[in-house]
Amino acid sequence: MRQNKKFLFAATLALILFLAAAPGAFAAEDPYPIPVFVNGVLLECFEPAFVEDAAVYVPLRALTEMMGYNVSYVTETKTAVFANSDTNIAFTLNAAAAGVEAVSGNVAVNGADFGEAEARLINGNLLVPLSFVTDYINRAALFVPEYQTRNGDTSAIGVMKIFSAYSVKSNSGLLIHSLTYNYSGRLPDNEHEVTSRYTVPQLAGFGDKTFETSLNKTFSDMFYATEQNVLNTYKEISETIAAGGEGYSSAEDMAYAFQYGNNGVLSVLLNEYAYSGGAHGSDLLYAYVIDQAASERLNLEDIFKPGVNFREILAAEMNKIRAAGSADWETVNEITAADLDSYDGHNFYFSEGDLVIYYDPYAVAPYARGRVEFKIPTETLAAHLLEKYAG
User: Fold this and answer.
1) pLDDT of amino acid 361
2) What is the pLDDT of residue 302?
3) Range(s) for CATH 3.30.565.40 in the chain?
4) How far apart are CA 190 and CA 100, in angstroms?
5) CATH number attached to the domain at 299-390
6) Phi, psi of 138 (to 5 degrees)
7) What was the pLDDT predicted at 198?
8) Which value, to the nearest 10 degrees, does the dihedral of the CA atoms of residues 338, 340, 345, 348 take?
9) According to the per-residue pLDDT averaged within each range, which of 58-62, 209-213, 315-319 is highest?
10) Are the CB atoms for 354 and 374 separated by under 8 Å?
11) SS3 for 274?
């Protein structure tokens, strides 16, 4: 049985956003107001939450008061203070020119410096990115020992979950639902923690609904595996500590991005970082290159004309890039045709006019070199690519 079960409060945030298409982007330049729900209750506030540059901004005072914090403001120091019986969060604004909405400030939790955070100051109301809630308020709650999860799921005791979601319509016509799950749990030694932040895309609008369902299930399954891993990791480390062993921190994060190629090709990029002790963590990229018209996930062979020795052609182009590169390319191995069989032919994506071939750390270079990306203009490969992928 785990000892010293430390959890905090479990507030679930559900944010829903529906945006019209914005040319070349997922979020329009002007902020769009969105409703915010805390444990299913609509948050009432003078300044509504909005999305700007893909960040969800929430009204900090109204949100924290709904979470049970008392809020005050110290005019002399320009410090907003959010406090309950156990926790004191202070957000001290830096100097800003009059009329400027974009501001920043320093955050302290129970007197300990937690660094700088950005915010928006609109009509005297402070709005912060949703990440402020997960990075500071959640983390502050980790130091509160008497709370337990409210849903009665004892397997999750010690791990707090915050959920947010919003939807946008891409410039390719797909409706993209973005689901973000945040977990954080302080371990019984009060020195280490288990954290995870996972953003999962769910796509709608493909002609082939079977493909759509299968693709979304693939993304969801990746999340559910991580969710279970977070809970298992917390349990295992807690049991190790209870048995007299040494604890350690564990973190897993996944975020996604989209890149567009030619003629309706969408690249969904999921970047996963995981750390569970040791010198460094693992940093992996999963690329899903999708022909929207055909409702098909592509591999490298699919984009080239039949009979083309694409491995030799790509290896030659990649070695040209390597030879012409700066000093950090000296640590990258020479690429062979066999290297193009890595990742089952899925280690690529389209980005505007480039075909990008990538390798995760250690694959073709030392870890310190980071992910290696070879950007080859599609016009260079035009004679070998299928016409619809060439431009």
Assistant:
1) 93
2) 96
3) 13-291
4) 40
5) 3.90.640.20
6) -60, -45
7) 81
8) 170
9) 315-319
10) no
11) strand
